[in-house]
């Protein structure tokens, strides 16, 4: 009977009693999110990791191919404010639907790019997918606080980032395997078309699953903070949204942290875009190695993102974790540069794996730290602003580092990334360590030491 009542509440969104419980469906919701996030993020690097083959087929420059990845960075600062407003206005379910269906539409558009003069269609499709990510990548903290108990929030946020990392990993792995370096360029085009069909077929059922299974919120709030949020829920209009932005831009701790986070994610974006070119500058005909090295970076990084979430749930040492992983990212990037100069492939695989571990670990740690210092500001808006600032830095640094790579060599381009990471480590040290969200969660731990689960 209880299960039936819960199901009816989920479907009809009827008011429920002020009871704090967590719902078992929360893990299914998280898995759905991770899958469509992975498919969206796969498309970020699917062309740039095979830059040389895309250049051969479409007859465009390497810089033009770089824009298949950089359009994702441009979309954030352009669309982050309207997207964040829509998420707060229409809710979690609508944001999930928009993100999933825009991903599907973008993938479908690229099916029509099968022709050597149709590179512009590729860019249109990539741009649509890029816009979808503005509705996708800032959702993990909102999903975490809406569906999960306080002791699970950091882990859930890390698992959300895990979905992003999984997609990027597949974006490094699969394109070099699917698209081969044929002598006949038409065969290269046929392989690219196979890749596009695979993506379109993968996202279609996932988008339908979001449509029919992804509810707005669970029937009961999972925490005291969420209970109070529901009872005092304010209708979001543009004035309310603008006020929340004003609060964020006046928050000194958030601004310093956003700068640091932007530097870190800019390096993430730059190396994801330029890795193929870095490796081919040292090893000829090594595009498959470049893909595998990117895969190692992301797979090991996925482990880092999960571990940091577990550690943060136990320790709540957000600033300390951010400083540590930032510093280790800089040191391991130095190891990667040394391995390149030694022209040792096995050393590159090892060092880029270590680099990926720490670089990916910073992503959820940085989001969680931002959520702490800005609480009770809307989680999706905070994450959206972080990504927007990061993508502005990403465009600037990717273009600059690509020019350095072309004109001065990979050594100086990678050295520039190391210096950027060192600057980010230093600025993180100066970020005020205000844990506002933990103060609210402390009330949960005092009043509700054990939050019961309810069956789906």
TrEMBL record:
Q: What GO terms in the biological process aspect are recorded for it?
A: heme export
What kind of membrane protein is this, topologically?
Multi-pass membrane protein
GO MF entries: heme binding; heme transmembrane transporter activity
- Domain Major facilitator superfamily (MFS) profile span(s) in chain numbering: 29-436
What is one Pfam family matched by this protein?
MFS_1
Compartment(s) where it occurs, according to its Swiss-Prot or TrEMBL record: Membrane
Q: Which organism does this record belong to?
A: Callosobruchus maculatus
Which domain of life, per UniProt?
Eukaryota
Indicate the principal place this protein occupies in or around the cell. membrane
The UniProt entry, under InterPro entries, shows:
FLVCR1-2_SLC49-like, MFS, MFS_dom, MFS_trans_sf
GO terms for CC? membrane
Keywords of the record, alphabetical order, are: Membrane, Transmembrane, Transmembrane helix
Q: What is this protein called?
A: Major facilitator superfamily (MFS) profile domain-containing protein
Q: Where are the transmembrane segments?
A: 27-45, 65-87, 94-113, 119-141, 153-174, 194-214, 254-275, 295-312, 321-340, 346-370, 382-402, 414-435
